[in-house]
Amino acid sequence: MKDLNKPKSEQARLNLQAINPSVEVVAINKQLTTDNLTYWVNKVNVVLDCSDNMATRHAVNKVCVENQIPLISGSAVGMDGQLLGVFPPYQHGCYACLFPDTEIGNLNCRTAGVLAPIVGIIGSLQALETLKFLLGLAVSCDGKFYVFDGRTLMWQ
């Protein structure tokens, strides 16, 4: 209850710093815009997109591709989850190649809801692929679009 009504970004920073004080964690407690998105993307080795709407996913994808920054995108809505890796030199395309229209499938957590375990599954896979990338290991999601059906526990 002590974290109630506090910014998620700052709470995440504090929790991560408590786990490993030698790691620098920067909390961005403001709305990302086209202008500041480029600034922040250029300060990282990989971007994890965990947004809940197509417009944000497209904006993040565009900046990552323009700046040659790897992107691991995860989303969850209802009982479904998706994972996509987009890595330079983009031999397999990017998010906009797969979803060219920002209005297609514009379901989000606010309008359709989401079951927390689906978020956990997709988030865990994003974390795994990110750690593999940062450790110099082969990532499995490069150019691949995985769809998880929580009703059947099947992957496509």
UniProtKB/TrEMBL annotation:
Residues 2-155 form the THIF-type NAD/FAD binding fold domain. Pfam families: ThiF. SUPFAM superfamilies: Activating enzymes of the ubiquitin-like proteins. GO terms for cellular component: cytosol. GO terms for molecular function: nucleotidyltransferase activity; sulfotransferase activity; thiosulfate-cyanide sulfurtransferase activity; ubiquitin-like modifier activating enzyme activity. This is Predicted dinucleotide-utilizing enzyme involved in molybdopterin and thiamine biosynthesis. The lineage of its organism: Bacteria, Pseudomonadati, Pseudomonadota, Gammaproteobacteria, Pasteurellales.
